[in-house]
């Protein structure tokens, strides 16, 4: 692994990712198996004047033991101190958050899905009020990944452990536009942000009423867009008006669909890992926004658990555009990790919509968000629909405009 | 590293160490660098019916960054949620505690000692009320160690990293009496406990008024013992009346000195790592229990910081006997880790005395403990005084008895 690139990754995460300012707190979550990036980020953050950097260490093996052995009752338990910790780190200190996400895609395979789903749901309900701090961009947040052994072996099953890890490092550096030289890394990101912003601006200026997805795989979906919707790209703005970049890599331009304005058939083009369980070759039928039918070749039970999470989990909360001809997509690698797979492909998310995607909506209450067509749910799960045959047309009144032709932007 | 021995280590820690019972909680602290034992302990605990196993992961490198970069103000900050966590895990759930201690002996070298000492003192004060749960054996607790790279290289500076780690694993398994076979491991410990108990019983039956330490290195110290003192050995008993073993390995028999009854010169025979800083070739002069003079060839400032921690930090809180001819001592290895070094050598501790070492004292308040001669302090720091020339005599009224002759038990 290239240590210069690793250092630039840390600097990129702190400077461009969360864009940490002097006196602010930082909260990192990191796998224990690969702590080097977390340590470099910590040092970089302190050098930028961070007040306090804290780490929540994750260990896949312990997570698996937890779900395997604990009773439903203790899994459902959310202790007062855990809420007090969120109150302090999130609500009070508005800590910048960097999540280093590198889960084994098969982590929870073979365990009791219903038990796990209930535990996650109960925890999500107990901590729901903290979701807005990220979903509404009140604080700066960033999701990145580092290679871990089981994930690397899942992505490159034919390589030996060390080679798989090395290869995954290379790919992550490449698609995250990280160079050995900091100035080049920096200008890579400045240019990339500008390119994405231009496309978003075009779509924002047009303010399409609805879009129509078709592909040879059977996708034929109409999606209405809310009034005053905003197509967001790489950069977001936090409550202090500082820009940050929530995902690295990022290739997407996204907004929210109108909750009850989605109709037709939508066929997924990549597998999805939900709560450590794999779902593959699946599709949905929507009527007035709701998933009224679905099937999956792999993980249909898991998909059903996900759709039955709550009242909002059968409705869409995100619609995102990614060119078929883009770095992650061109790598032709299936990552089994949403951060990468979603940035390789046009995608949707089931569940909660980002209030930031409609003008003035960040300050609205849940009921008001619902009125303007933004879905609410405890879940927000991306799934991929892009392929080389995808066409997307936008409609504004009588006018019809090609947005995507044969998988790529036609703008 | 021998995986059978590792499994037996985990089983030993759960069954003999904390002696975990069904429905109890377990709280582990472990270095992220060597998570295998913590994972095996977790699984073993769940198999024994643990309700909930939690882990506090430690990372030396982050600890160093924390002390290096944070301001005194933020280092001194103890957040409400941290107290709430202790309230829940320690005071409410009485979690069994297993601390896997494997710190780099030079961890904090070169940093601001005063800043670190103040931060540790403030935190100790804020969390003082939770100390009794271990010091009074209210819950079961256990300290063990696993090799980590910097520690292994400090112990075996001439070996390469992998060899140093492997060697340290071997030594830890050996001195902890762990065999590849569980039944042998089990009987090793049953026999060892019995042997230590016999020695403790002899001393307890005698109830010496005072003991006299002399050695060719200059040690000449009188230590009075409190009325009804108890010499403890390997096993302790928690508030539920379950036996547990707080240290693995353990070779010591210990009690408390009478706070104001210590007089003379005491020369340390091994280095001490205090808060990540090394102190070496040091000695003390005591008058009426108090350290009135001291010197150290290495780390004299650190020693001074330690002695000035609070009102009780210049008085002794523990007196412990370990034969010069015993497994850890015979290994001739300097571990720079108190768990091992204290069990290789007769030692004392400066600071708080264990209330469990005087009959009926566990239920007494701080003021009452002081009256019967037990010292109170925020610190409890062991330091080694054993060598091949150490003689210890016990005095009961007119009677003089050899306890140690030439470094070994004369009982």
Features:
homodimer, alpha+beta, four-stranded parallel beta sheet
SSE map:
Two copies of one chain form a homodimer.
Chain A: H1 3-17, E1 25-31, H2 36-47, E2 52-58, H3 60-69, H4 72-76, H5 80-92, E3 96-100, H6 113-126, H7 132-135, E4 141-144, H8 149-155, H9 161-175, H10 182-206, E5 210-214, E6 220-224, E7 236-237, E8 243-244, E9 253-255, E10 262-267, E11 272-274, E12 277-287, E13 290-298, H11 300-307, E14 316-321, H12 327-330, H13 338-341, E15 347-351, H14 366-371, E16 380-384, E17 391-396, E18 399-405, E19 408-409
Parallel strand pairs in A: 1-2, 1-3, 3-4
Antiparallel strand pairs in A: 5-6, 5-17, 6-10, 7-8, 9-14, 10-12, 11-12, 12-13, 14-15, 15-16, 17-18, 18-19
Main interface: chain pair and counts: A-B, 32 and 32 residues
Helix content range of the residues of chain A, please? 25-40%
Pairing-aware structural class of the strands and helices of chain A? alpha+beta
The description of the largest β-sheet of chain A is: 9 strands, antiparallel
Give the N-terminus to C-terminus distance of chain A in angstroms.
Answer: 38 Å
Plain-language structure description:
2 copies of one chain form a homodimer. Chain A has helices at 3-17, 36-47, 60-69, 72-76, 80-92, 113-126, 132-135, 149-155, 161-175, 182-206, 300-307, 327-330, 338-341, 366-371; strands at 25-31, 52-58, 96-100, 141-144, 210-214, 220-224, 236-237, 243-244, 253-255, 262-267, 272-274, 277-287, 290-298, 316-321, 347-351, 380-384, 391-396, 399-405, 408-409. The first copy, chain A, has 411 residues and is α+β, with helices and mostly antiparallel strands. In chain A, strands 5, 6, 10, 11, 12, 13, 17, 18 and 19 form a 9-stranded antiparallel beta sheet that branches. A 4-stranded parallel beta sheet of chain A has the order 2-1-3-4. In chain A, helix 8 crosses helix 9. Chain A starts with a helix and ends with a strand. The model of chain A has no long low-confidence stretch (mean pLDDT 95).
């Amino acid at each position: 692994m290239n240590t210069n690139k690793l250092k630039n990754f840390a600097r990129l995460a702190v400077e461009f990712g969360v864009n940490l300012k002097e006196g602010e707190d930082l909260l990192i979550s990191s796998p224990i198996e690969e702590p080097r990036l977390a340590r470099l980020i910590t040092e970089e953050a302190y050098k930028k004047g961070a007040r306090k950097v804290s780490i929540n260490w994750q260990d896949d093996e312990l997570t698996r033991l937890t779900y395997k052995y604990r009773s439903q009752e203790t899994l459902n338990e959310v202790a007062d101190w855990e809420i007090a910790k969120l109150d302090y780190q999130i609500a009070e200190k508005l800590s910048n958050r960097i999540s280093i996400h590198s889960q084994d895609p098969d982590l929870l395979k073979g365990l009791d899905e219903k038990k796990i789903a209930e535990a996650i749901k109960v925890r999500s309900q107990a901590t729901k009020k903290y979701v807005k701090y990220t979903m509404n961009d009140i604080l700066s947040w960033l999701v990145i990944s580092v290679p871990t052994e089981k994930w690397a072996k899942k992505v490159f099953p034919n390589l030996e452990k060390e080679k798989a890890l090395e290869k995954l490092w290379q790919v992550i550096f490449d698609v995250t536009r990280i160079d050995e030289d900091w100035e080049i890394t920096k200008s890579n990101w400045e240019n990339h942000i500008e390119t994405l912003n231009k496309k978003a601006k075009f779509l924002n200026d047009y303010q399409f009423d609805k879009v129509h997805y078709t592909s040879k795989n059977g996708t034929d979906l109409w999606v209405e867009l809310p009034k005053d919707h905003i197509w967001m790209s790489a950069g977001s703005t936090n409550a202090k008006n500082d820009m940050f970049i929530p995902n690295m890599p990022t290739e997407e331009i996204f907004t929210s669909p109108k909750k009850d304005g989605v109709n037709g058939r939508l066929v997924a083009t990549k597998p999805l890992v939900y709560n450590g369980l794999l779902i593959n070759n699946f599709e949905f039928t929507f009527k007035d926004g709701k998933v009224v039918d679905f099937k999956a070749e792999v993980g249909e039970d898991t998909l059903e658990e996900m759709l039955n999470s709550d009242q909002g989990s059968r409705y869409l909360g995100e619609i995102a555009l990614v060119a078929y001809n883009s770095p992650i997509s061109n790598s032709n690698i299936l990552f089994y990790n949403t951060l990468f797979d979603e940035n390789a492909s046009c995608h949707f998310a089931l569940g909660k919509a980002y209030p930031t995607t409609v003008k003035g909506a960040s300050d609205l209450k849940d009921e008001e968000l619902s009125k303007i067509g933004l879905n609410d749910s405890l879940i927000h799960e991306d799934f991929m629909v892009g392929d080389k045959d995808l066409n997307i047309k936008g409609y504004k009144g009588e006018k019809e405009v090609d947005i995507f032709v044969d998988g790529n932007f036609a703008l």
